[in-house]
Write a structure and sequence with these properties.
alpha+beta, 5-stranded antiparallel beta sheet
């Protein structure tokens, strides 16, 4: 008397196992190609961004520091941005303060900085407490695609701090 699986059951198991492996490879390839396509679309959208930044200046104010309970001198930066594109809206900007050593800290601009096609808008940053270490500003546009915020680092512009005067 023979013991073991019949030839038919063995073939069915091998065919089923092969189908499961093929389905897994298909799903992986589909996800990989859609991710690659999305990254290509994002690069294309970012490469089309054209903006001009100019008229940089800074102003100082005395503000009340809630944490310390004291008044402190703080500075904010103002500048004009022009969206040179016809249709693509720029959703906002990341502003980084870069020191001479290359390290940076990101500050935000005040809300509602969407800039439509061929529109110019003045942007104002949050207050900066220590501006003595700033070497340059790095300005990076953000766009909104399918309700996803995309930061376009390859389109950054720089402004040297020494060229920025008082407002």
């Amino acid at each position: 008397m023979k013991k073991g699986l019949s030839t038919i059951v063995t073939v069915l198991i091998l065919v089923s196992l092969t189908l499961v492996i093929l389905a897994g490879v298909f799903i992986w390839m589909k996800n990989f190609s859609s991710k690659t396509q999305r990254e290509t679309d994002i690069r294309k959208l970012c490469s089309e961004i054209v903006f001009d930044s100019r008229d940089f200046c800074y102003s100082s104010q005395t503000i009340y520091n809630v944490e310390t309970g004291t008044n402190e001198e703080a500075t904010n930066i103002k500048f004009n941005i022009r969206n040179e594109m016809d249709t693509q809206q720029i959703y906002g900007f990341l502003i980084s303060l870069v020191d001479s050593g290359g390290s940076s800290r990101t500050i935000s601009t005040l809300p509602f900085n969407e800039i439509g096609g061929q529109e110019t808008k003045q942007l104002t940053t949050d207050f900066i407490s220590d501006m003595n270490t700033i070497d340059r500003l790095k300005i990076v546009p953000e766009i909104n695609s399918s309700n996803e915020l995309i930061i376009c680092n390859e389109q950054e512009k720089n402004a040297e701090w020494g060229s920025i005067g008082k407002c």
